[in-house]
Specification:
single chain, 218 residues, alpha/beta, Rossmann fold, 2 domains, seven-stranded mixed beta sheet, 10 helices, elongated
Length: 218
């Protein structure tokens, strides 16, 4: 499955859906066409990107089921969506967008391009219930985190770093990511010295330990 296919497969049923950084509107179109929401908001800080999404969803917009909003995150919405998708952004940016709201959305689907551990830590600190938290591959490796406003999921430091589902039920995609990360560390070790080298050695041992544990289970 492609990246957007995986994301779409994890969109839950809701009343009002908001797609932040709307990626040309593909996920919003999927949600509307498959009856996952009554109405949807397309949110993008780029007017050019938003225009592409508007073209894809012109029929839904004309029917009053989809509303394009040029805004930063969710800042321009006049109603509170009960499901929010934020995909294709860095983890720090996702945290910034969610932090500006008084409370988390009732449901969320998040796909950080980096710093997924910061997203996990933020969600746990806000008392969210994390549903799925896994790594998948579509050329590159991606993290996907879904959940709800309430639930009070508690993560260990290890789970924050790697994702709970990746550790409990590892897949070949996650195994591939760990192997790639280990190779990156081995390459960095060639030029590392002093304290940096010690840190990298510790990191490599951790990755190799995870890889060995996964290899026994696959």
């Amino acid at each position: 499955m492609g990246r957007l296919d995986v994301i779409c497969a994890h969109i839950p049923a809701c009343r009002v859906f908001a797609d932040v950084g709307c990626d040309h509107g593909y996920c919003t179109r999927y949600a509307l066409q498959n009856g996952l929401c009554e109405r949807a908001y397309l949110c993008d800080v780029s007017a050019a990107c938003l225009k592409k999404a508007e073209e894809l969803l012109r029929e839904e917009i004309a029917a009053g089921r989809c509303f394009p909003v040029c805004c930063d995150g969710l800042d321009g919405l006049t109603e509170e969506p009960d499901c929010v998708l934020i995909a294709g952004m860095g983890g720090e940016e996702i945290v910034s967008i969610l932090s500006r709201r008084e409370r988390l959305p009732a449901k969320f689907v998040l796909q950080p391009m980096k710093n997924a551990e910061k997203v996990r830590a933020f969600l746990c600190a806000r008392g969210a219930g994390i549903g799925e938290d896994m790594t998948f591959r579509d050329g590159k490796f991606y993290d996907l985190i879904t959940g709800t406003r309430e639930g009070g999921t508690v993560y260990s430091a290890f789970e924050l770093r790697y994702g709970r589902d990746n550790l409990l039920n590892p897949t070949r995609d996650f195994f591939g990511k760990i192997q790639k990360d280990a190779e990156t560390v081995r390459f960095a070790l060639r030029a590392a010295e002093g304290a940096q080298r010690e840190t990298l050695i510790e990191r490599l041992h951790e990755l190799e330990g995870i890889a060995d544990a996964i290899d026994e289970r696959l």
